[in-house]
């Protein structure tokens, strides 16, 4: 027993020594140390980390930091097979040109960190055109690399405590409007041919063109983004999954001059040949403001096909249309198995909009006999206020859009102050205009067009989960 007591007091002594030594050590570290410990959630945590400033970066908003980003990421790429690495972008304004990401890597923007895109074209390298588009969307020859670019990667994360990435797009918008660009405008973030991507908890502003463009990729989570572009600048789409599979887009707020989300899969003969659909996509809790475009567009480039898209709990304010399907002769492929549930809409030109005559071909080599198959389009549980046209559903002659289902939709029409009253009812514009389509409706107000037959039905919404819905975030700390 004596020995034990001795041992116990010895142990207590050692513990006190450690505690005292520990607190002495603690006294020497800056008091901000604990404040700097940050928890965040991610698909993977990283074993190694470094600060952007370790690589000579200067956060004054004036010094160009492209070299610092490149050497930091090259340096950290050595840890890809040793637990991965995280690059911290501290508070400050970090001007940079385009840079490339690497695998098993996290770019982390601390609160107050702003990545500022250079407005000097020399800082934006040129990339070859996308094979599924056959040309640049805006100029035939080539395209500028996105600000943050990645290709052929596995496990790449861009996140932070709501840090900001500012594309400083006004330079590009002006030149685009004046027809002065020889290449297609850059995107803010583009990830190609990659697997396991997370983009979350950031504010993205003023992209030169599209904001977030995953293409030829899979297993993608995009959440907690605030995306802000002026409401009247063209092509500032928010999130554009393109020829990508298994995508989860949740809790995003988007204000855009173009579609808040646009799902795509290549353009006419190039997209048909490339043949990679966008599929298994879930969108939840989106808020959108887009007076010139759609909350969610499918197409118009859809020549690899779009299928199994689920969207629920959507809010749009002052937006041209809710869901819009855009296609054309020559596109081929399909848009099918689209499920939408729960839309809350306020001030909108069209709630339901389908266009089979969108046009816009990459060149005149498209085959006008190659028609898209648009079928299995399901909408339910819709409340809309202040709407100009409830539905404009326009298929293609001899290629009707089929299997349309709309149930439980209440649409309040916008009534002009001086609207004519007939039989006690304000005359509004024809609320529905349907051509070359077929389908059913149930409990929809105002009464739909005759091509949508009344039938007692709840339009389907899948009850199974997509594989990406089972991916759990880990809690990591820096
Ligand atoms: C993003 O932020 C929200 C709210 O602060 C938090 O709950 C969530 O875990 C974060 N998600 C990611 C992926 O970092
Ligand atoms: C880059 O990595 C090497 C280890 O390979 C390390 O010694 C070096 O200090 C790193 N460079 C910087 C600027 O941190
Ligand atoms: C970034 O990747 C592109 C495409 O692979 C390549 O052309 C470019 O040289 C890379 N840039 C750097 C700085 O490595
Ligand atoms: C990236 O992956 C694509 C498709 O697998 C392949 O064609 C291309 O050569 C790869 N590029 C690089 C730089 O490895
Ligand atoms: C992130 O910042 C934006 C812009 O300041 C703000 O509107 C948004 O509410 C912030 N998000 C979170 C989760 O704090
Ligand atoms: C369109 O696709 C559906 C579902 O895959 C199929 O049943 C139908 O035959 C196709 N229609 C045409 C015209 O190819
Ligand atoms: C009809 O839609 C509203 C609004 O989304 C929803 O609250 C309600 O539960 C739906 N009714 C049925 C019977 O599904
Ligand atoms: C209703 O919509 C009209 C035209 O689309 C718009 O001018 C008006 O401000 C909207 N009213 C409300 C209350 O939002
Ligand atoms: C209905 O839509 C068709 C096809 O887009 C168009 O040609 C026609 O003018 C529209 N009718 C009305 C009354 O708006």
SSE blueprint and pairings:
Layout: H1 2-28, H2 33-36, E1 39-42, E2 48-51, E3 60-64, H3 66-76, E4 85-89, E5 92-96, E6 99-100, E7 105-109, E8 113-117, E9 126-127, E10 143-144, E11 148-151, E12 154-160, E13 163-166, H4 170-177, E14 189-192, E15 195-200, E16 202-205, E17 212-215, E18 218-223, E19 226-228, E20 245-255, E21 261-263, H5 268-274, E22 278-289, E23 294-298, E24 306-326, E25 334-355, E26 373-394, E27 401-413, E28 421-422, E29 425-426, E30 432-435, E31 437-445, E32 452-454, E33 474-477
Parallel strand pairs: 2-4, 3-5, 4-7, 5-8, 6-11, 7-12, 8-13, 11-14, 12-15, 13-16, 14-17, 15-18, 16-19, 18-20, 19-20, 20-22, 21-23, 22-24, 23-24, 24-25, 25-26, 26-27, 26-30, 27-31, 31-32
Antiparallel strand pairs: 1-33, 9-10, 28-29
The chain binds 2-acetamido-2-deoxy-beta-D-glucopyranose (9 copies).
One 2-acetamido-2-deoxy-beta-D-glucopyranose binds next to strand 25 and strand 26.
Give a written overview of the molecule.
This is Pectate lyase superfamily protein domain-containing protein. GO terms for molecular function: polygalacturonase activity. Keywords: Cell wall, Glycosidase, Hydrolase, Secreted. The protein is mainly beta. It has helices at 2-28, 33-36, 66-76, 170-177, 268-274; strands at 39-42, 48-51, 60-64, 85-89, 92-96, 99-100, 105-109, 113-117, 126-127, 143-144, 148-151, 154-160, 163-166, 189-192, 195-200, 202-205, 212-215, 218-223, 226-228, 245-255, 261-263, 278-289, 294-298, 306-326, 334-355, 373-394, 401-413, 421-422, 425-426, 432-435, 437-445, 452-454, 474-477. The chain has 2 domains: 11-256, Single-stranded right-handed beta-helix, Pectin lyase-like (Pectate Lyase C-like, 3 Solenoid), CATH 2.160.20.10; 259-464, Single-stranded right-handed beta-helix, Pectin lyase-like (Pectate Lyase C-like). The strands form 5 sheets. The protein has a 23-stranded parallel sheet that branches. It has a 4-stranded parallel sheet with strand order 6-11-14-17. The longest helix has 27 residues, at 2-28. The radius of gyration is 26 Å and the shape is globular. The two termini are 46 Å apart. One 2-acetamido-2-deoxy-beta-D-glucopyranose (NAG) is lined by residues 40-41, 159, 200-201, 223-224, 473.
